[in-house]
Structure formats: C-alpha cells, structure tokens
Amino acid sequence: MSDLKKELYELCVNYVRKSMDAAELGIKEAQKASNEDTKSSAGDKYETGRAMMQQETNRNLAQLNEANKLMVALNRISTGGTSAKAETGSVIVTNNGSFYLAISAGSLSVNGQTYFAVSPGSPVGMMLTGKQAGDGFTLNGKSYTITSVA
Question: What is the mean pLDDT of residues 53-79?
Fold first, then answer.
C-alpha cells in the first residue's frame, strides 16, 4: 500500500508542478508582451495594453500562489504507514470509488485503477476524514460505504 501512496503522492506533485510551470510561463509572456508594447501617438491604447498585461500577470501570480499552497500541503503528507481512520495521506476505498485524501487534483490512474485526489476541505474530503472501514455516509444523494482505509 505504501507504494500506491507514493505513486499517488508523486502524481499530485506533478499536477502541482505543471500548474506552477504554466503560471510562471504566463507571467513571463505577459511581462514580455508588456515590455514589447511601445508607446505610440495613441497613448490610451498603450496604457490599455499595459493594464491588460498587468492583469494577466496578477492572475498568473495568484495561480502560482495557489499552487505553492498546494505544494506546502503536499509536503506535510507522509507516504508511509497506515491508519485505521482516514486522514490526510490516506487511500480510502468505497463502494462508489477510491479516494486519495491529499489535494484536489482530480482523477489519478495507478495500475489501471482510478483514484480521486480530494482535499480534506472538500465536501467529500470532510465526509471521509475520521472514517474507518465499515463506516458510511451520504453525499449529494449518493450513499458511500468505506471498505478499506490505508
């Protein structure tokens, strides 16, 4: 199970790194476009273009900041050991899907099996936290029964 946790953890790290890379590229491109924009006799057009590039830079900086927060959350997760109760870093198998309680990274595939990476703060993450095998819950009209926690 520890190998599975390590693989899921690495997939989450790669997910965050891709987000960081995309945000950094967006910042560089917006700064480059802003620097290449030359002042012309149509001053308003120049100022509008620079303001739009600044908005794009700010948007990408916000995305980079969020990705950094996700990486900090991932750095707190242990990939070794098991727990009887679901906690951050746990793999939880239910009758309606398997979950990795870490960050919201969507569906991850390991050895042909799909796992949903969910944040402990998400609705399903809050329902899973603290539960153990045999426990159940209902979310959005769908019933879940936990078959295993590791």
Answer: 93
* Location of structure tokens 């799909």: 114
CA distance 42 to 91: 59
**Which positions ≥6 away from 49 have C-beta within 8 Å?**
34, 37
Domain span including residue 141: 91-149
Closest of 145, 124, 128 to residue 136, by C-alpha: 145
Using one digit for the tens of pLDDT, what is the confidence trace for 93-124? 999 999 999 999 999 999 999 999 999 999 99
Given 75, 110, 138, which residue is the final one in a domain?
A: 75
Give a yes or no: residue 85 inside a domain.
Answer: no
**Token pair of 100 as six digits:** 């990795």
Rg of the chain over Cα atoms, rounded to whole angstroms, equals 21
Q: Which two tokens stand for residue 19?
A: 């987000």
pTM given for the model = 0.85
Shared domain for 58 and 105, answered yes or no, is no
Residue partners of 78: CB distance under 8 A and separation at least 6 = 89
